[in-house]
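ESCALATION

Customer reports they have been waiting on this structure for their group meeting. Please prioritize. Original submission:
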Amino acid sequence: MNIKKVSPQILEIKKMKQLNLFDKLLLTEPYNIEIMYQKANPLNQLKKQEVAQQIYIDIIKINPKHELSFLKIGDILKDQQSYQQAQQYYEKCIQINANNSAAQFGIGECLRATYQYHHALHLSKNLQFHLFKLHRVNNLNQLYHFIDAAKTFTFLFYKLRFPILLQMYLSRSFIFPHSLINEIQI
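Update from on-call: job pushed to the front of the queue and completed.
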């Protein structure tokens, strides 16, 4: 008996058992998105893409922000060579989570499959620029949190009349430069 022939059959039997379990669970919780999603994945692997795709669509009807369902539908459509539709689902996924690299890769694959190399290159450059801007926004966000903390600190010490403690803290100029305190005073 050939092991290579047995292994896919065993995997298929396991997936069918999983599907039966998910069907039973869905009888008690018919709108449980996690169970629905877990049911659709083995269906997709068993080459029952239409059924899996319908489950992903049902999940999106329940939760329009379920990014993984958009991603999976994009993957199914890409495998069916419906590249334009697949790209639309990948873009919806990216609208929900701009950092979803699988969706970004999916768009690139769709563009490659339709010979849109120039557009794929442009998209790659825009993506790199977007990630750079996102990194800068995160750094600015951290700076604003620091400034808010400094304002709160200054407010508490001035309003609660602890000028001696404030002066002691300000003497640590490497932590709180006077120029920063002057800018953030309330």
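Sent to customer with the following note: The chain is about 80% helix and 0% strand.
Escalation resolved.
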